[in-house]
């Protein structure tokens, strides 16, 4: 862990510079009511805050809800890096909840199990409170990109399997979400690649080989069952996780899960392109396609 951590910190330091430049030049829509820094746990940690975005056009009408989990290699970023993307989703007629979670790699030794528990604490807050903002708890959806895509996949498995919830230290939640959207997800830490080797100890801990959580959740293929709710997946030719995205599609297809897969092959679009550039053509197309997929899975479509 000590060997890889400085390298990963350097990588994510560069990512932070790029995100700062990107966010300054982007101009998100202004027709969305933004509610910032709401604690979903009362411990005062930045990692336990969320934002709620409500379309001003809602007019008191109950709207479906998207919860978004940002990426960043499990050790970088907060909800702010996904704000433009979440506002673009809200423009499609959804109340969007943009969540933080604690990051790996720090002195408090947060691991993936802690992050998954954070996500479910946020989901619990949403289920209990989103109606105040006009959200429909009967039509909730979960999205995530890269590391957030990994957390999205694991969340889907936990929602479908009480035994997995028990191993993760999470009260059995049941099927919270009508469907999931995973952008450039990482699904398999067991592969022998520089990416997985460098992240394994940071994400699961130094003694990961003896850890039940690692043995259970390191490879999504081993926990993905036919009980999973529908999935929308996206990757691209310029995505360094493209093969993992393809594997995720194959896993879901093999298990009989309702899945729509978009492997973007034009113009060599980069990793999580629809998240970092939601107002450009390719990103707009993916967002339209994914939100249309979500609406098709709603209990009542007439309200959207």
Automatic annotation (TrEMBL):
One of its GO terms (molecular function) is hydrolase activity. It comes from Candidatus Scybalenecus merdavium. Signal peptide: none annotated. The keyword Hydrolase applies. Residues 50-165 form the BD-FAE-like domain. The keyword Cell membrane does not apply. Pfam families: BD-FAE. This is Alpha/beta hydrolase. PANTHER family: AB HYDROLASE SUPERFAMILY PROTEIN C4A8.06C. InterPro entries: AB_hydrolase_fold, BD-FAE-like_dom, GDXG_lipolytic_enzyme. Keywords: Hydrolase.
């Amino acid at each position: 862990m000590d060997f890889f951590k400085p390298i990963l910190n350097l990588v994510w330091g560069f990512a932070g510079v790029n995100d700062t430049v990107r966010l300054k030049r982007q101009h998100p829509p202004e027709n969305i009511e933004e509610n910032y820094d709401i604690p979903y746990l009362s411990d005062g940690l930045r990692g336990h805050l969320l934002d709620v975005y409500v379309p001003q056009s809602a007019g008191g009408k109950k709207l479906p809800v998207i919860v978004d989990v940002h990426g960043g290699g499990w050790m970088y970023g907060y909800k702010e890096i996904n704000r433009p993307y979440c506002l673009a989703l809200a423009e499609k007629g959804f109340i969007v909840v943009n969540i933080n979670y604690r990051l790996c790699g720090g002195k408090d030794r947060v691991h993936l199990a802690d992050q998954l528990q954070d996500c479910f604490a946020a989901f619990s807050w949403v289920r209990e409170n989103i109606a105040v903002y006009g959200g429909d708890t009967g039509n909730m959806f979960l999205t995530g990109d890269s590391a957030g895509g990994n957390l999205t996949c694991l969340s889907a498995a936990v929602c479908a399997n009480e035994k997995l919830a028990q191993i993760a230290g999470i009260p059995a939640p049941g099927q919270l979400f009508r469907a999931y959207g995973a952008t450039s997800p990482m699904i398999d830490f067991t592969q022998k690649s520089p990416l997985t080797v460098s992240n394994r100890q940071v994400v699961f801990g130094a003694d990961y080989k003896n850890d039940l959580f690692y043995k259970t959740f390191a490879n999504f293929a081993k926990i993905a069952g036919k009980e999973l709710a529908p999935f929308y997946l996206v990757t691209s030719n310029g995505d360094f996780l493209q093969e993992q995205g393809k594997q995720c599609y194959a896993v879901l297809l093999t298990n009989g899960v309702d899945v729509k897969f978009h492997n973007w092959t034009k113009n060599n679009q980069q990793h999580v392109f629809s998240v970092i550039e939601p107002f450009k053509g390719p990103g707009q197309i993916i967002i339209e396609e994914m939100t249309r997929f979500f609406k098709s899975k709603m209990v009542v479509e007439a309200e959207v």
